[in-house]
């Protein structure tokens, strides 16, 4: 019996589905436009529309308003990491000796770079920015060879304020102070609202650089249970601040490091109400906000704050110029104290780089650059996730961030990534062991992988080797 004839739109749909199945079109990539596919397949535009609607129904394509059709992201086979419960008792910050080892090896070009979250120079607009810097030095070199005003160069502060308006922050240049990276911004913010011996509530796991700052300032911490998707547990936060033990709270605005989580807007508002009610200031770290994979940039806490209770910290280190060490802080009523501390510690931020960066931001180059690196980072994390699914041991869990360029991987216990770290270095691979992201040495069975270098055969091979090592260690651990 002969097979029934197939409609032309079904044949076109199968052709596009085949491209996706063979990897020619990868998840998150833009599909050929309706006009392109109709021309290529020598069919009518209406047939192409029918084919794409069929692919949309099958979950192969997804339509983005005013943007076109994209290959839908396949649902990852691995679950997300679990939420760890913590004691609400304040504790000293105990730093792992592995942190210094990690920082030392992360700059070693001979190692597969899965360690520190630093973008590869290949992905940054370094050549364009270098040209702007050279031109600025040539034209304004004499003017820039001096100390900047206490708040920093007004031209850069103006550009930062203009960008902030796009995501709900109504700032003037006088509300902003330029800092030597986000680390100094966090240190200044903590210095403005705490004294040595105070307790600060933080996400867990959290950025290890923050832990270094907290320890240097002799502050205690309470680690908040943090979901890999929705962020900090608001109920737990409420219990902590109601106890009266916490002097300040530090949270990531969006796409936290290392979990990649983002609190829903209603949770952010609830957290702000709780903190304001108990007089606990919030310090927010928004270094990854511009690296969002969706259409909209999530609103930071400061854009939702109605109580003047948020100190905002940002930086260009994760998106454009890690070597420039330019960050900023918006402090509200704490500005005078922040500037006093800034003057006593680093005095000022270099003028030349500030002026060059202001020029780069003003001519639209930064926005074009962001669109490109967002696609690159999203594609890299997608590829890394697939390799983890294929090569890491059964029971592995992995985060699913909607922004930034790191993955948090939870191996089945009793895996110990401290041992795996040492073995990986011998194989020429660097990653970040989980214990460096905890104030109390938790997460020994977890690790963070950076996708900041993009995707190439070296990253692919290194990640597969690491997966095989983790699988071998897992089998040895259950015997």
Automatic annotation (TrEMBL):
Record keyword Cell membrane present: no
Lineage: Bacteria, Pseudomonadati, Pseudomonadota, Betaproteobacteria, Burkholderiales
Residue ranges annotated for the HTH gntR-type domain, each copy included: 6-74
Organism: Variovorax paradoxus
Name of the protein this chain belongs to: Aminotransferase class I/II-fold pyridoxal phosphate-dependent enzyme
GO MF term (any one): DNA binding
Keyword presence, DNA-binding: yes
Domain of life: Bacteria
InterPro entries linked to this entry: Aminotransferase_I/II_large, HTH_trans_reg/aminotransferase, PyrdxlP-dep_Trfase, PyrdxlP-dep_Trfase_major, PyrdxlP-dep_Trfase_small, Tscrpt_reg_HTH_GntR, WH-like_DNA-bd_sf, WH_DNA-bd_sf
Keyword entries, A-Z: Aminotransferase, DNA-binding, Pyridoxal phosphate, Transcription, Transcription regulation, Transferase
Transmembrane segment boundaries: none
N-terminal signal peptide: none
Protein family membership: In the C-terminal section; belongs to the class-I pyridoxal-phosphate-dependent aminotransferase family.
């Amino acid at each position: 019996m002969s097979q029934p004839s197939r409609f032309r739109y079904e044949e076109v749909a199968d052709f596009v589905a085949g491209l996706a199945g063979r990897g020619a079109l990868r998840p998150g990539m833009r599909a050929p436009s309706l006009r392109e596919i109709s021309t290529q397949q020598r069919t009518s535009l209406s047939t192409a529309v029918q084919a794409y609607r069929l692919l949309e129904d099958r979950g192969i394509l997804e339509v983005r308003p005013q943007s076109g059709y994209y290959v839908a992201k396949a649902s990852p086979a691995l679950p997300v990491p679990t939420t760890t419960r913590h004691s609400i008792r304040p504790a000293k910050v105990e730093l792992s000796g592995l942190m210094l080892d990690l920082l030392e090896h992360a700059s070693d070009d001979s190692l597969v770079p899965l360690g520190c979250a630093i973008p590869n120079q290949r992905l940054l607009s370094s050549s364009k920015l270098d040209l702007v810097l050279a031109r600025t030095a040539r034209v304004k070199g004499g003017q820039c060879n001096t100390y900047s005003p206490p708040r920093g160069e007004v031209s850069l502060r103006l550009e930062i304020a203009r960008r902030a308006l796009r995501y709900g922050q109504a700032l003037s240049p006088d509300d902003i102070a330029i800092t030597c990276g986000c680390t100094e911004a966090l240190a200044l913010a903590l210095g403005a609202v705490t004294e040595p011996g105070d307790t600060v509530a933080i996400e867990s796991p959290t950025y290890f650089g923050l832990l270094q700052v907290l320890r240097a300032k002799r502050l205690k911490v309470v680690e908040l249970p943090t979901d890999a998707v929705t962020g900090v547990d608001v109920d737990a936060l409420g219990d902590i601040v109601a106890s009266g033990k916490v002097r300040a709270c530090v949270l990531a605005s969006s796409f936290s490091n290392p979990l990649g989580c983002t609190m829903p807007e209603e949770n952010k508002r609830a957290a702000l109400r709780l903190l304001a009610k108990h007089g606990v200031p919030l310090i927010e770290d928004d270094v990854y906000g511009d690296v969002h994979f969706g259409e909209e940039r999530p609103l930071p806490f400061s854009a939702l704050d109605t109580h003047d209770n948020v100190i905002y910290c940002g930086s260009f280190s994760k998106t454009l110029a890690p070597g420039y060490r330019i960050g900023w802080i918006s402090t509200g009523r704490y500005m005078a104290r922040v500037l006093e501390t800034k003057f006593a510690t680093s005095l000022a931020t270099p003028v030349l780089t500030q002026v060059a960066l202001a020029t780069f931001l003003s001519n639209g180059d930064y926005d074009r650059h962001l669109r490109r690196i967002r696609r690159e980072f999203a594609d890299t994390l997608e590829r890394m996730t697939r390799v983890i699914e294929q090569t890491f041991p059964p029971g592995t869990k992995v985060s699913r961030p909607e922004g930034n360029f790191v993955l948090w991987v939870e191996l089945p216990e009793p895996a110990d990534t401290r041992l795996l770290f040492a073995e990986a270095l011998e194989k020429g691979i660097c990653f970040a062991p989980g214990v460096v992201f905890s104030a109390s040495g938790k997460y020994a069975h977890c690790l963070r992988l950076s996708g900041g270098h993009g995707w190439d055969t070296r990253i692919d091979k290194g990640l597969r080797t690491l997966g095989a090592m983790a699988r071998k260690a897992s089998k040895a651990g259950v015997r």
